[in-house]
Specification:
Length: about 500
């Protein structure tokens, strides 16, 4: 075995994060690690990669037949283990070559950094991945997908034999995912082993040889990928059957609350949105689909007043024109946005859960500029309990929560403003199957209470399952509108690709 772990147990202040976990990785194997947020995946990764040093846990593991007693990440790297984190550990201000050889810079006469040698070697490592990038270019010039490939090249330059990839496709476009999958298959053929962690089960079954499921810090099972399917893995992950994950209980739609007519928007002088028209009714979910760059997030951000300059069209909420560029006024008028990037735009990670929950409602919770503490605490407690946020309490630091619970905090803050329209931009990105199910149920609760929902999602089956109507975008313009019963994955994809489909305002 390339890696063999047995009876691993890790405790934090009385909380058992891992309990008697065993795990194996074969040479040239891609082994998927699945589980809900909080199942123990991150703890296991940190243990195997030296973040949790030997002696801080029970059990043992071997790398290539030798017992590992790592005292640090450096020890793990020296044994051939590298982690490609979801939040990439790269430095934008440095060149690509400098990132690849950071801490291991080739030297001239043992003193001066040999930049030419570093760039030649970096080009060779990138070429092994089939990537043609100028190694002297600054890393900030690359997109997320290419930055991830630079991280893989960095690991291979260190002669790593085991790659641990944590949610590697969470921020990638579809074509970038295909490139990554091709590279991983090539690495497998070269005998490099990978531990692959993802909430996207379709990717797991596309790339993995075996799947190990963790639940509540323990190993539930290890399955041969070709002998299992998504339903089996989901059942092991959550400990129950999920018959219909996207169950939509749609109430009869009410009156029109939001009207967009012939909207056109520019950004830095470039036309980004054009000829967009739709109505949104109370109790309705209008899905917004399209490929990366189609303008989905930009549409929501513009409606919220934080992006772009409107050059044509009008936006009307309950008979009143929505302000052009004032998110505070948008909130006050009844529009709330749950942003795609919760860690960057949705949360203050070093602050408490309570601080983040009430942040958008402080005007209503204050008198003469002084926050009414009891009212704030009561409102925070209501949403904390209503959304089932799993944290030590309102004073818990939000940056320490799982992705699903962080997303609940962002949604809770939006709902505390009592909106008429909730705009959800990729609300289930990067969260586990159980947390997804809770957010789907919440969407049903919102519409049952008469709230209108604009939902952006990259997952076609999520759009199909949750939306009453679907509006597809292509290159900043509408490419098709569909009723729930008329839409199929094929018709939605054709519209996303810009195929000629009649578009009508509904």
């Amino acid at each position: 075995m390339m890696l063999h772990a047995e009876h691993l147990t890790k405790r934090f202040a009385g909380v058992t994060a891992l309990h008697d976990v065993s795990f194996e990785l074969r040479p040239g194997e891609i082994h998927a690690l699945c589980g809900e947020n909080g199942a123990g995946k991150s703890t296991l990764i940190n243990l195997l990669s030296g973040v949790h040093p030997h002696g801080s846990y029970e059990g043992r593991f071997e790398v290539a037949g030798r017992e590992a007693r790592f005292r640090s990440i450096r020890d793990a790297a020296a044994s051939g283990i590298a982690v490609i984190h979801q939040e990439l550990a790269c430095i934008d201000e440095m060149t690509i070559a400098e990132n690849i050889f950071l801490g291991r810079e080739p030297k001239r006469w043992g003193v001066w950094v040999d930049r030419a040698s570093a760039e030649r070697s970096a080009a060779e490592e990138l070429a092994k991945l089939g990537v043609s990038i100028d190694p002297s270019a600054p890393l900030r010039s690359l997109g997320v997908g290419h930055k991830q490939l630079v991280e893989i090249a960095k690991a291979l330059a260190r002669h790593s034999r085991i790659l641990i990839l944590d949610e590697p496709t969470a921020a990638l476009a579809a074509h970038e995912v295909e490139v990554l999958m091709t590279i991983l298959r090539d690495l497998r053929a070269r005998g490099i082993s990978c531990i692959y962690i993802s909430h996207r089960l379709e990717e797991v079954f596309d790339i993995a040889d075996r799947v190990t499921v963790l639940r509540d810090g323990a190993t539930v099972c290890t399955l041969e990928a070709d002998a299992a399917d998504e339903a089996v893995v989901v059942r092991h992950m959550v400990g129950r059957e999920i018959a219909d994950l996207h169950a939509r209980s749609a109430p009869p739609p009410g009156q029109t609350v939001l009207t967009v007519v012939d909207l056109a928007v520019t950004d830095r002088g470039e036309q980004r949105l054009r000829d967009i028209s739709f109505d949104l009714r109370a109790g309705e979910v209008l899905g917004i689909g399209g490929l990366m760059g189609a303008g989905r997030s930009e549409l929501l951000m513009h409606l919220f007043g934080v992006w772009g300059r409107r050059t044509a069209g009008r936006v009307v909420l309950m008979g009143h024109t929505v302000p052009l560029d004032d998110p505070r006024a948008a909130l006050k008028s009844g529009i709330a946005l749950v942003t795609e990037d919760r860690r960057r735009f949705g949360l203050l990670l070093e602050e408490s859960v309570g601080f983040n929950l009430s942040l958008s409602s402080l005007g209503e919770l204050s008198r003469a500029g002084v926050i009414r503490g009891r009212e704030e605490a009561a409102a925070n407690t209501h949403w904390f309990e209503s959304l089932g946020i799993k944290a030590s309490g309102l004073r818990g630091i939000v940056g320490r929560l799982s992705g699903g619970n962080q997303q609940k905090v962002v949604i809770g803050r939006a709902l505390m403003t009592r909106p008429k329209v909730v705009m959800l931009d990729e609300p289930t990105r990067g969260i586990d199957i159980g947390a997804k199910r809770e957010i789907y149920a919440l969407i049903n609760r919102l519409t049952a209470d008469g709230c209108a929902v604009l939902l952006v999602s990259s997952e076609l089956f999520e759009l199909l399952g949750l939306s009453d109507r679907i509006l597809m975008l292509h290159d900043g313009a509408m490419s098709g509108t569909f009723n729930r019963n008329d839409a199929t994955p094929e018709t939605l994809m054709r519209a996303a690709l810009g195929a000629a489909i009649p578009t009508r305002r509904q």
